[in-house]
Write a structure and sequence with these properties.
It is a single chain. Helix content is 37%, strand content 17%. It has 13 helices and 16 strands. A seven-stranded mixed β-sheet has the order 4-10-9-8-7-5-6, sandwiched between helices. Strands 11, 12, 13, 15 and 16 form a five-stranded antiparallel β-sheet that branches. The protein has a four-stranded mixed β-sheet with strand order 1-2-3-14. Helix 4 packs parallel to helix 10, helix 11 packs parallel to helix 13 and helix 12 packs across helix 13. The structure holds pyridoxal-5'-phosphate. The site of pyridoxal-5'-phosphate (PLP) has 16 residues, from helix 5.
Length: 446
């Protein structure tokens, strides 16, 4: 641990605290596939995949080759003024793989956050309306627009206001902790009724440009909405001339067992927001929208000197190729089903597990202090992650209590099994009181 600890100590001196939520002192030296090696040479299996950014795994040879070859040709020329082939080829590929059989166009950026800002601008430009609807407990990023859309942490909004005007938040349909106190199956979709209530009382629908929705709420703890809710919401949007935007930054690129998360809901979004896994860890984001919508804004409403960087575009093209050649979408679905089955079986033996939910290899295991109250088991979640790390698994949690299961989609059957075994051992240790409270000094999470 010597080298890792030295790096962490030096980091503390010179890096801003606003940019990290610590889990354990791991400094990455290298990574291949689903394995990460730390600065001291310890190997870990990775169930976080750099926050769902590495669906093709660490250093996939095809991605590395594409990056190296493109970097040797030219590293950048800004698409703000000139053209390049990787940019066009990638836009063509994105038009092909995204849902919606209609003409589409693409706009590139560098991060999921800037793409969210882009969606706000584009929706306003196209509709001529000011308001944007987002969801309570959503996470959209760190720029002013995306942080305004977000509503999952007071710390990220505290002290920095005023935020963007005309952004309204409504409850996300969370069937485990229903904001309306209902049970899924016996409810009347009070969450959807609430949107009608909002439109009748405080959000004039004719002033709303767009609803921006994560198809599965990621950082809220992998919250999967009912299909009927999403269909009903899109119908309401259509009735009122409101654009429906699917925010795919975390759930896109095969993560959920479909190319894009929204494909689980049988609706066609007007705009998709893409980031994270799009370029296997290289900085890139994209908006894909109906062509008529994309024609509504003018340069330079959304350009970045480094946007659509050709090295990132080459990485993204290689990423799409790898996902297709290695059937990673299908693999995500089948491995996800196996992992869900294992967690459900564990839930039969560990009271600590309150809920298991997700699609594909985007799974949340919600730990609770009591199944009756569904109170979040923060300490236990932190301890499970710490113990898992000690046993060689990179595991994190979000929303105070939800274990985040998002490994690279290239993970092998044996690796998945090994990771799940470690989680079981960690659950057993925490349940038996074998993980001391001191670890809570180290693991903060969020
Ligand atoms: C759903 C979602 N949207 C947007 C973002 C922000 O992306 P970035 O950190 O690349 O700006 C994230 C990052 O965690 C995310 O999970």
């Amino acid at each position: 641990m010597e080298k890792c600890l030295a790096i962490v100590a030096a980091d503390k001196e010179v890096l801003s605290p606003a940019s990290r939520m610590p889990y354990y002192p791991l400094a990455v030296r290298s990574g291949h596939g689903s394995t990460v090696v730390d600065a001291d040479g310890n190997e870990y299996l990775d169930f976080l995949a750099s926050a769902a950014a590495l669906n093709t795994g660490h250093a996939h040879p095809k991605v590395v080759k594409a990056v190296q070859e493109q970097a040797a040709r030219f590293i950048h020329y800004t698409p703000a003024y000139m053209y390049h082939e990787p940019l066009v080829h990638l836009a063509q590929a994105l038009v092909r793989i995204t849902p919606g059989d209609f003409p589409k166009q693409v706009a590139f950026g560098l991060s999921g956050s800037d793409a969210n800002d882009g969606a706000i601008k584009l929706a306003r430009a196209y509709t001529g309306r000011p308001k944007i609807i987002s969801f309570i407990r959503s996470y959209h990023g760190s720029t002013y627009g995306s942080i305004t859309l977000s509503a999952v942490s007071l710390n990220m909004r505290r002290k920095i206001g005023p935020l963007l005007p005309e952004v309204e938040h409504i409850p996300y349909p969370d069937c485990y902790r229903c904001p309306f106190g209902q049970q899924h199956g016996s409810c009347s979709l009070e969450c959807l009724e609430y949107v009608r209530f909002a439109f009748a009382n405080y959000i004039p629908p004719d002033e709303v440009a767009a609803v921006i929705m994560e198809p599965i709420q990621g950082d809220a703890g992998i919250v999967v909405p009912p299909v009927e809710y999403v269909k009903g919401l899109v119908k309401l949007c259509r009735e009122h001339g409101i654009l429906f935007v699917s925010e795919e930054v975390q759930q896109g690129f095969g993560r959920t067992g479909r190319w894009f998360g929204i494909e689980h809901f049988d609706v066609e979004p007007d705009i998709l927001i893409l980031g994270k896994a799009i370029a296997s860890g290289m900085p890139l984001s994209a908006l894909v929208a109906r062509k008529e919508i994309m024609q509504a804004w003018e340069a330079p409403a959304h350009l970045f000197t480094m946007g659509g960087n050709p090295v990132s575009c080459a990485a993204a093209l290689a990423t799409i190729e790898v996902i297709e050649e290695e059937n990673l979408v299908e693999r995500s679905r089948t491995l996800g089903e196996q992992a869900m089955a294992r967690f459900r079986e564990l839930a039969g033996r560990y009271e600590l597990i309150g809920d298991v939910r997700g699609r594909g290899l985007s799974i949340g295991v919600d730990l609770v202090t009591s199944r009756a109250t569904r109170e979040r088991a923060y300490k236990e979640a932190a301890k499970v992650c710490y113990r898992a790390w000690e046993k060689g698994l990179l595991l994190s949690f979000f929303s105070n209590s939800v274990l985040r299961i998002q490994p690279p989609l290239v993970i092998t059957d044996a690796e998945l099994e090994r990771g799940l075994n470690i989680i079981e051992e960690a659950l057993a240790d925490v349940t038996a009181g074998r993980v001391p409270d001191e670890v809570l000094e180290t693991v903060k999470g969020w």
